[in-house]
Automatic annotation (TrEMBL):
Pathway note: Protein modification; protein ubiquitination
InterPro entries referenced in this protein's UniProt entry, alphabetically: ARM-type_fold, ARM_At1g04390, At1g04390-like, BTB/POZ_dom, SKP1/BTB/POZ_sf
SUPFAM superfamilies: ARM repeat, POZ domain
Species for this entry: Ilex paraguariensis
Coiled coil: none
Name of the protein this chain belongs to: BTB domain-containing protein
Top-level taxon: Eukaryota
Length: 1021
């Protein structure tokens, strides 16, 4: 017992020695003041409460004095730790009292507290601080909201994920975002210090960054955006940083980014100026961060390129260059800046004018500087070296392991530039020949190293795999670059570096692919390695000597077996999972972004295996295709293979695999991309109904066609549009022409009927089937008709990386150009549209000018109606039994197979209940109409939209269930009942179900019983 007491005394003495006597005195004074305000509460222990202003002032000053004597050494002392709960409690009570004479001092002390005390000590008390601080953001005292914003910014910077939800609820309750926006809008440099705007903007940025629901009301505030635009013109760097941070936080929302770019000239000018090399490091960083966010989608990148192409590329080049090395290393802040600039080069993924500026501004030299240390000082005379000498020099440079962390960026940037380089690009024009040659050599050496190390994959680990993919992909982009110079130079270098072990590598690739084809599902390391092996094999297939060896080693059969294996066991992997260097810290905080997949999407294994097979087939000669592919096959036929390729062409999610499937199909006489809409419209080609154009050959044979389809798909076959008489009604004149006349078009003597019919087959269906004997005629026809996608497939050209799929979309026929072919009007049964006016005709009711051939092809109901002979079949106006809001969604689907979707994300979330119901109601009508008119695919599309809306707003189900029942859509009613079921008892007791029919209430009750038995009841939101 004595020993324990002695130990305790010794421990206490050590603790006391850690703090000064002055600190102990201040602590006693603090608690002398605090104890006056403590009150006992049954539920929460004691609570600090005192309404006496002088006592509040005494407590605040005591806290202030105590905080002043806390250092980093004493901050973890029990005396400090044990005092925090009482200090926070007192400050909370004083701030909540909101006495104007004490608020300024109390808020300043709060700032001191969050800056002095460690985060670990403050974390348990965060919520007690956030509420009073956020409630004072609306204070009229200048210093109070500044101090509160400063303290809150510090708290949010160190906020744990666990506390985010509770803090957001407090911020909503206190209208923090609204108050901050108001404070920024009333800011004026004349009567408020810059610090005021800085702190308001900083806190608002942090809130927007963490909580996506906060963003809509900010970017949708036009006045605020005008204020920010004006502030961005101020010369102070601190203001520019605050504005850039706010813009970046708003751009985390895809809708917000789109809004910023709508009239973004001023914003982009300020952003470009901020990234200039003459600006401070911290300002440049914020500029690059905003630029990356705005460029997340192809549309955003395109808008930036249109508005500021050269300044954007110049900023990137400057950010990646002018390296200041110390002992062969970059300073940390400069390394971060270079990486941010590299990340912005992702805009090079997409084709555009910016590629020419990259070469013009010397990207080759910059990339060399990131790969090889002191290259230009050491190797000034290298231009006259032989290829072998250049290879040795490049290998020595790579072996120095200079800036290794940047290499994956360099490879990807080089690959994108090569893939989008112009065919006639000449590096000599920009003095870049030496740099490009060395870059090609370095990439090929890294490629060979990736193959060599692949055999030790299991020893080296998964991380080794990820570092190799970028180099392999870059060589692939260079070997098959549309640029003649880059392609030929890459093939020359790769042939040289593969000489020692190229044959062994080919065997290794084929062996691993055969092993995969005979196995089961791949794990992640195996999948990554399989991707690299396929890329590497496809690179080698660009070299004649290795392509021949692969063919002799039954490479066609190997790739065919691999494709069959993948179709049976689809293994999906995204590029980002193999290229972690492109992951950014804000990707998990984004919302409302709809970014298209990369060209390969998640089907990298399928794409590169199809690519390799296409190369082998192309060089083996089309006459040998069937023999090479199926000569030794016993369980797989040409018909099966073609069918599977057509399935890929029609239904694959991403363009790359679809393009290469179509490329292979061209060797089987199939050219184009089958689609559901093309299949529907293709029926009209064999029918003479509703034709308005006669194509007459020199043999006097004729083919009847539909002008509206040619207008969209092949306008070259249309006759020139005659000028309408002055004062005449354009559409009424053309409508009469459509009804009473068939226009004759006399074709050239070079056009024969067989070729014409085949081209029309492509125009109407989106693809055609033809033998080799027609190739010459069809190529001439496609070239004269400007059918570029058809010409590419007829010539069997390799698809260019990134090329989108040619869409079969007739939506343009609904625009002004299609009105002259319109021969019928669709009118809605009901509408609430006011002040309607048609630019085409004088009909007052809301309507759409459409085309009988489209209606006939797309809908069995219209087909039966037009052929019935009834009065309605001859009417120029058809009333559709749906609302106008539903009609304007239905008609575009007929022309494009795409159902217009409601706005989701923050646009949807910020609609009130009635607005959401108005958005959803048309889809319920269309769901009913689709059943009535036998439109199965359309009905499924509508159902998916309805379910998506109900998933995000379950309370709409109460309204939808009655609407569905009124339309006898019992499947939909049951689905809605299942959504309502978890809250049946509450809704029933509150009377909210009284408006429903009894059988619907019973349907909900039965669904509730089922859910209760499954233990799935939830709380009504």
């Amino acid at each position: 017992m004595r020993s324990s007491s002695s130990s305790s005394s010794k421990h206490g003495a050590e603790n006391n020695r850690a703090i000064s006597g002055h600190m102990i005195t201040l602590h006693k004074r603090l608690y002398h003041a605090l104890n006056i305000g403590f009150r006992c509460c049954d539920d929460k222990g004691r609570k600090w409460h005192c309404t006496d202003i002088e006592m509040q002032r005494l407590v605040v000053r005591s806290i202030d004095a105590f905080l002043d004597c806390i250092s980093s050494e004493t901050s973890q002392h029990p005396l400090v730790k044990d005092s925090v709960v009482d200090i926070v409690g007192a400050l909370e009570g004083i701030l909540q009292f909101k006495n104007e004479s004490i608020m300024r001092l109390a808020s300043c002390v709060a700032v001191k507290m969050v800056s002095v005390l460690p985060c670990s000590i403050l974390q348990p008390h965060i919520l007690d601080l956030v509420h009073p601080l956020s409630s004072l953001l609306s204070s009229r005292q200048l210093q109070v909201p500044v101090s509160c914003a400063t303290a809150l910014s510090s708290i949010l910077s160190n906020l744990t994920f666990k506390s985010e939800r509770d803090v957001w609820e407090i911020l909503k309750e206190t209208n923090s975002v609204v108050n901050l926006v108001h404070n920024i809008k009333v800011f004026s440099g004349a009567d408020k210090p810059i610090e005021y705007f800085q702190q308001m903007a900083s806190l608002l940025s942090k809130i927007l960054w963490r909580w996506p629901p906060s963003r809509f009301c900010v970017w949708a505030d036009a006045t605020l955006l005008e204020v920010l635009e004006a502030l961005s013109l101020k010369p102070e760097y601190s203001v520019k940083v605050a504005v850039l941070q706010l813009y970046s936080s708003l751009a985390l929302c895809g809708n917000g980014a789109k809004k910023l770019l709508e009239n973004g000239e001023t914003l982009l000018h300020m952003m470009m100026d901020s990234m200039d090399s003459s600006r401070p490091h911290f300002l440049r960083m914020e500029g690059f961060k905003l630029a990356q966010l705005l460029a997340m989608s192809e549309q955003g990148s395109f808008k930036m390129v249109i508005l500021c192409c050269e300044p954007l590329v110049k900023a990137i080049i400057c950010g990646m260059s002018n390296l200041s090395l110390h002992s062969g290393k970059l300073a940390k802040d400069q390394m971060i800046l270079v990486m941010e600039a590299c990340r912005l080069t992702r805009i090079a993924r997409w084709a555009g004018e910016h590629h020419s500026y990259f070469w013009k501004l010397g990207v080759g030299r910059v990339l060399i500087d990131l790969l090889l240390n002191n290259f230009h000082k050491i190797h000034q005379s290298q231009l006259n070296w032989s290829l072998k000498e250049q290879i040795v020099m490049a290998q020595e440079g790579l072996n120095a392991n200079f800036l290794l962390v940047l290499r994956p960026y360099v490879w990807d940037i080089l690959g994108w530039l090569a893939a989008n380089c112009a065919q006639d690009f000449d590096p000599k024009m920009h003095g870049d020949e030496l740099h490009i040659n060395i870059l090609i050599i370095c990439a090929c050496l890294a490629f060979v190293e990736s193959i060599r190390s692949a055999r030790q994959i299991f020893q080296n680990g998964i991380s080794n795999v990820y570092g190799k993919e970028s180099a392999s992909r870059t060589v692939l982009m260079m070997i098959y670059s549309p640029c003649k110079y880059i392609g030929s130079q890459a093939r020359l270098v790769l042939s040289e570096v593969l000489k020692p072990n190229g044959k062994e590598y080919i065997k290794y690739f084929l062996d691993t692919l055969n092993a995969t084809s005979s196995g089961n599902k791949l794990g992640m390391p195996d999948t990554c390695q399989a991707v690299i092996n396929l890329i590497s094999l496809t690179c080698c297939l660009g070299l004649p000597q290795y392509r021949k060896r692969v063919t002799q080693a039954q490479g066609i059969e190997t790739l065919l077996a691999f494709i069959r294996w993948w179709l049976s066991n689809p293994v999906h992997i995204k590029r980002l999972s193999m290229a972690p260097h492109w992951q950014n810290p804000f990707s998990e905080r984004t919302c409302c972004w709809i970014c298209g997949e990369d060209w390969e999407g998640e089907d990298m294994l399928l794409l590169f295996s199809l690519w390799g097979l296409a190369e082998l087939i192309h060089h083996s000669g089309s006459s040998k295709t069937q023999e090479d592919l199926f000569g030794s096959q016993t369980d797989y036929s040409e018909a099966q293979f073609v069918s599977e390729l057509q399935e890929i062409c029609s239904n694959a999610d991403t363009p790359g695999p679809r393009w290469y499937a179509a490329n292979i199909l061209s060797y089987f006489g199939l050219y184009g991309f089958p689609s559901k809409l093309g299949k529907r419209i293709g029926k009209a080609l064999s029918e003479n109904g509703y034709t308005d154009l006669e194509l007459i050959l020199t043999s006097q044979e004729s083919v009847s066609v539909h002008g509206v389809i040619l207008m969209v798909r092949c306008p070259s076959l249309l006759p020139p549009l005659k000028k309408k008489p002055s004062g005449a009604s354009f559409v009424s004149q053309d409508t009469e022409t459509c009804k009473n006349f068939i226009t004759e078009v006399h074709l050239s003597a070079h056009v024969d009927k067989t070729g014409l019919l085949k081209v029309l087959e492509f125009v109407y269906l989106g693809y055609l089937q033809a033998g080799e004997d027609l190739m010459k005629k069809l190529k001439i026809f496609a070239r004269h008709c400007n059918l570029q996608s058809l010409l590419q497939m007829l010539c069997r050209r390799r698809p260019k990386w990134g090329t989108p799929i040619p869409s079969f979309d007739l939506s343009a026929a609904l625009g002004p150009a299609g009105h002259r072919f319109s021969d019928i009007i669709l009118e809605a049964k009901s509408t609430e549209v006011l002040h309607w006016r048609c630019d085409v005709c004088s009909v007052l009711a809301p309507h759409m000018h459409v085309h009988k051939v489209i209606l006939w092809s797309s809908c069995d109901y219209f087909q039966a109606l037009f052929q019935s002979g009834m009065q309605e079949s001859h009417s120029q106006t058809i009333e559709v039994p749906i609302s106008w809001e539903a009609l304007v969604k239905f008609v575009p689907w007929l022309y494009s197979e795409e159902l217009p979707k409601p706005s989701f994300g923050c646009l949807w979330d910020n609609l009130d209940v009635e607005e959401k119901l108005n958005e959803l109601q048309p889809y319920v009508e269309l769901y009913w109409l689709a059943e009535f008119w036998l439109l199965g695919d359309f009905r499924e599309d509508c159902f998916r939209v309805i379910i998506s809306c109900l998933d995000s707003a379950r309370y709409l189900s109460i309204k939808i269930i009655q609407t569905a029942a009124n339309l006898c859509q019992w499947k939909l009613a049951e689905v809605a009942a299942n959504y309502v079921a978890p809250w049946y008892h509450r809704l029933h007791n509150s009377g909210e179900l009284d408006s429903l029919d009894e059988d619907l209430v019973e349907m909900i009750r039965a669904a509730s019983v089922r859910l209760s038995q499954e233990g799935s009841l939830q709380t009504f939101p």
